[in-house]
Design goal:
mainly alpha; 2 strands; globular
Length: 329
């Protein structure tokens, strides 16, 4: 990686992490036990979007979802309950984070990657407003398609078309399923996302998401309906791998609540002059600015393995721009 003290890429950002892009140390050689332990502790033992997804899924399972027996028939009453179990947390999380970071500017531009505010009076966006555009596509198409895919899986599980089990059956697999879903989501996202950057498909669908060069909390699942359909095919794994209904909810929150925070535009959340959580993702922020890089996630080094990695340096920017020229020439 280019040394940051002589790297001109730093001048292009209001804030850039000192260590650049941080990737999962599990795949580094030689193995480093303590960095790996710290990485996974931050995912599972501290305040993170992973722990938030687990908490939301537990609440939804015990307080909102009906039993699988009820879901044998595709009735509107339980479908609406699934939709509300997704809609309300999404509005609360995106709404509160946007309010703190962008409405009252609670931490000003501290730890904000891009100094600009969300766009207004810009014809690129629906309603000429970035926030209104993002809210519309996120809620009308995003939450709806996310919920419908879950309902299809629930119906299939209830009727024996998808493998299912209830707690405490398969206790070991019940707990292993959570990290498995994170790995599966990373694998699926990389290849689907890379396919969406195929120029014809990009112009038809993915360009809606990439209107957001300067991202915010509502940008996370602001996508064209075609992209939402492709993105949520990740739920098809539950037709192959035995799952508990709680896993289905966790899968949805992980895939759709996490992007609220990773697209926040800030690396850290500060409240009352104290760091409360790491929220932003410079790795993906680079993707939104330079497009043809970092298609995957920091959890797995797909981009390193398949030649699309941007490390946050000026050299990475040059390589990405060259790759983009070849793609669109």
């Amino acid at each position: 990686m280019t040394k940051y003290r002589i790297d001109t890429e730093a001048t292009r950002w209001n804030y850039r992490p000192k260590k650049g892009v941080s990737m999962n140390p599990l795949f580094e050689w030689p193995p480093k036990f303590l960095p790996v332990l710290r990485w996974y502790s931050a995912y599972w033992l501290a305040a993170s979007t992973t722990t938030l997804a687990i908490i939301l899924s537990i609440i939804a399972y015990f307080a909102i979802l009906p039993s699988l027996d009820v879901m044998q028939d595709p009735r509107l009453h339980w479908i609406i309950r699934v939709w509300l179990a997704n809609l309300v947390p999404h509005i609360v999380c995106a709404g509160l984070l946007h309010f703190w970071l962008y409405t009252v500017k609670g931490q000003d531009k501290n730890f904000k990657f891009d100094a600009r505010q969300p766009a207004t009076n810009n014809g690129i966006f629906s309603f000429r407003n970035q926030i209104h555009d993002n809210i519309f596509w996120s809620l009308i198409s995003g939450v709806t398609q996310w919920s419908m895919m879950q309902c299809i899986v629930f119906w299939a599980m209830a009727n024996g078309y998808a493998p299912a089990f209830l707690f405490p059956d398969n206790m070991i697999w019940f707990f292993l399923m959570f990290p498995f879903l994170i790995l599966w989501a990373s694998f699926h996202f990389y290849w689907v996302h890379r396919a969406l950057h195929w120029p014809p498909l990009y112009r038809i669908a993915h360009a809606v998401h990439h209107r957001n060069i300067n991202v915010g909390p509502w940008s996370g699942i602001s996508m064209h309906p075609i992209e939402h359909f492709v993105f949520y095919t990740n739920f098809l794994i539950h037709f192959v791998v035995p799952s508990h209904p709680l896993h289905i909810m966790f899968h949805g929150y992980m895939q759709s609540i996490h992007p609220i925070f990773s697209h926040s535009g800030f690396e850290k959340l500060y409240i009352a002059d104290k760091e409360r959580a790491n929220i932003g993702d410079f790795f993906h922020q680079l993707h939104h600015r330079y497009f043809e890089c970092n298609y995957g996630t920091v959890e797995m080094p797909w981009d390193r393995w398949f030649g699309s990695f941007h490390d946050g340096s000026s050299q990475g920017t040059d390589e990405t721009r060259e790759r983009k020229k070849k793609m669109y020439s």
